[in-house]
# Entry
Amino acid sequence: MAILDLQRSTNPTSDEQRAAALADPGFGRYYTDHMVLANYTEGSGWENPRIVPTTNFSLHPAASVLHYGQEIFEGLKAYRHDDDSIWLFRPERNAMRFVGSALRLQMAPLPEEIFLDSIMELVDAERAWVPENTGEQSLYIRPFQIADEPYLGVREAHKYLYAVLATPAGAYYPDPVKLWITPNYTRAAKGGTGTAKCGGNYAASLAAAAEAQDHGCGQVLYTDGAEHKWLEECGTMNFMMITRDDELLTPALGTILEGVTRDSILHLAAEHGLTPIQRPISIDELRDGLDSGYVTEAFACGTAAVITPIVGFNSPERGEETVGDGQPGARTQTLRQHLLDIQYGRAADRHGWLRRVG
Ligand code: COI
# Structure
């Protein structure tokens, strides 16, 4: 039974326009006809979760988010299966992380059931926007929360707006990437906001991303803020590497984002003959491993990026370094395919990760 009020658009996208968008969606270029909204006011709590036509917001210019960046978001996907049923992948993990991010940014946390119901119902209302499962296309869902109280003093806001957008998406990184190991920037530090999914972390990553581009790399690999010694994560993804000893190594949690894809891959590792290990990994260990051939493969993972093979690194100290033979690793590709097969209903969902919409 529907829980959210649904106000249908009187001017929805035509079938032809939608088909054109779904044929080549890119990422974040087209938006579905409806979005979710809900409001929080101190004293009244969260109210009026609803689905409305997608349109501009009206915000007071003093809204706190515009000045102090009290904003958090999530990213998850809806997949169409062969029988036309539509499924979400581990949305409860996103709901939990959204609460964690809110608490870190001193925002009112959204009850997890509102998060889950709102996404289920939005996707159900927008089923026609979920692409066919012929390629790697899906409907990317972007829940977010902003402080919309007009107030210029620096304190937590007393009003928040929760919203969910949906956008058909193709591959975020269609090609393997090289990573720039930046000596100049860090993404997180102990006590910072690295574990929260907040817009500020991504704004702060753009200068490093530009630096990466200048050095022929598609993404950044950050090291820790204190010593520039320990591997952390990439700008939009977690980092993993495979060793000759059949280990799947990834930096331990602490300052980095706890990725849903990261966690899923760690759970799948054993089925691929890999021992999942989360521990501090130094940059020297990576470099020695590349030199000796001990590190055989590397990849980055995230909801938007799925699993993106890493074929090389670049850094001021060592210049260009190649992973293996400079091609996407075979085990990386197999893991990637397995994860996609679960998400698209082609492989058994042994962990109970899929949630049916509608
Ligand atoms: C995601 O993978 O969902 C992300 O949020 C990364 C990015 C596109 C910002």
Summary: Residues 75, 202, 236, 302-305 surround 2-OXO-4-methylpentanoic acid (CB under 6 Å). Residues 154 and 178 are 40 Å apart (CA to CA). The first helix runs from residue 15 to 23. The chain has a mean pLDDT of 97.
